[in-house]
Please model this.
Amino acid sequence: MADRVLRVCALYPDLLNIYADRGNLLVLERRCAWRGIGFALTRVGVGDDLDPEAHDLFYLGGGQDRDQRLCAADLQEGVGDRLHEAAARGAVILGVCGGYQLLGHAYALGDEEIPGIGLLDVTTVREDGPRLIGNIAIDVDLPGRPDPGTLAGFENHGGRTRLGPSAQAFGRVLSGHGNDGRSGLEGARSGRVIGTYLHGPLLPKNTWFADWLIETALDDGRPLAPLDDRLEDAAHDTALRAVRR
Model:
């Protein structure tokens, strides 16, 4: 039995799964397995209990507006409070696209407002205008890393996300739209809670970020063993070239 186990909770995987979110989870599992690190995945759906102490990393993917409504209602029934407890003890929480919006205060669609859980000081509004679609690259500066890194992905969102006074952007846009197409900022971060619009999926294109998530979530002071990432680095370079085109 492995002496290190990464415990991952996928929230609402049957609803928030339209942006290759299973690929993100698979990358985490494989990169753990190649290092002899155990991997325990728990799927929590609408109506299920959530133990905030039982997981090191929580993942929320992207979904359609109707699916976000279902998840938002469930989050308001206590699951959101459990995520606040998990964040307070240092668990990693990653929300991608719709999951990012649910980590904020609210997502306004005309006269309707989908409530979030306020783990990130952001608010999203559906405004008139085109969807923000295309390849995107951002620079990010993460705790524990000596140098900034570049993430490449794909964005496709109609909402414009605004950062509140206590919010910190996840990254700065090198190419693409980001949170609102104007600010030059992408995503948001508060401690180990991260929200981003990058998908496509995110982690296969940026395995260095997957490793940061694993090491940060394990939080045992032990660095990850290096891997032969020639193929992964090539995938990252290809994604960046797609952005430049």
